[in-house]
Amino acid sequence: xxxxxxxxxxxxxxxxxxxxxxxxxxxxxxxxxxxxxxxxxxxxxxxxxxxxxxxxxxxxxxxxxxxxxxxxxxxxxxxxxxxxxxxxxxxxxxxxxxxxxxxxxxxxxxxxxxxxxxxxxxxxxxxxxxxxxxxxxxxxxxxxxxxxxxxxxxxxxxxxxxxxxxxxxxxxxxxxxxxxxxxxxxxxxxxxxxxxxxxxxxxxxxxxxxxxxxxxxxxxxxxxxxxxxxxxxxxxxxxxxxxxxxxxxxxxxxxxxxxxxxxxxxxxxxxxxxxxxxxxxxxxxxxxxxxxxxxxxxxxxxxxxxxxxxxxxxxxxxxxxxxxxxxxxxxxxxxx
Length: 336
Known about the structure:
Number of domains: 2
CATH class of the largest domain: Alpha Beta
CATH superfamily of the largest domain: CAP
Strand content: 5-15%
């Protein structure tokens, strides 16, 4: 009898969870702000529910993309991670699958790493520690995935004329990149014919060399640059930089709101006719070394870089100072 009651009780709880998730999902699609308030109300009534934590996490992650200051982004992402950890702990396998949690979690991870990288560059140790602490339950110690900033001695000659700091990209590359992007309407889906120029081909080449050097050590075949994959990678990097988002799926901004328009491999398929099998994205890093380290110390990204079946590769690096993370990287691979 007790066993039967337990099954009935579990079914009732699962049914309630499904209904709450469905209501919050519909509410979030219409108005994330109202969905956030509703999620908090549900959580106060029944703290055992997982769904409210998921949508609160999504709300804070979205909020991080709407603010410009890195410190504000860190605060929002920390709240997203905290709620995400609670969701993961309370959710059933069914709800985790319905929320596409593994994919959402990976994206949140990348956004936090990008934010930590910027905080590190700004030497904002207090915000850096706060964000790593709030992310600890969900991801472990993320500080280990952020490349340390090396302090360099700056020697200034007394009679030297004031100069501008060295730019990450050359004026020529920057002009060509902006010109190629200005001809594209990023509010629409790509056609596969977009030909965007890089802001810094040297950095693209450098990260590919670093990856291939490591592949050689692992006795893997080097990845061969494919122009179609390069344009696929640059398009997505430029799209994220211009539409101000950080996701694997392509998004279009309609009436100020971002809407998913197509999946990553559907988009790559418009540029590359063979089989595409991996994609890495990164943001906030101005150098190939920092991006390589970020991917190297992340298990999923590491696996993509050293995928034994991959033979072709494309790398894209785009800079947009007015976007949230400024620097955007995309790495995608395919087979012959």
